[in-house]
Write a structure and sequence with these properties.
33% of the residues lie in helices and 0% in strands. The protein is mainly alpha-helical.
């Protein structure tokens, strides 16, 4: 029953909204690019990436390249 593959699920949207309501920081360090971009768009307050790896060094869906910045 989710919106589709990639990006925030319906539960993820509700989670970001609840985290905003509680004053929690939304840390997107382990999110893939579509999910991180969705969370940034949905969050009413700034989000963070507390740590990341460079895609040029370690190729995974959760590492960042210049296009993800």
């Amino acid at each position: 029953m989710e919106r589709g593959d990639g990006g925030l699920s319906d539960l993820g949207i509700a989670t970001v909204e609840r985290m905003n309501d509680l004053g929690m920081i939304v840390d997107l360090s382990h999110a893939n690019a579509p999910t991180a971009l969705d969370a940034i768009e949905r969050s009413r307050v700034p989000t963070i990436f507390s740590h990341n790896a460079a895609k040029a060094v370690w190729q995974t869906a959760r590492t960042r390249d210049d296009a993800d910045s």
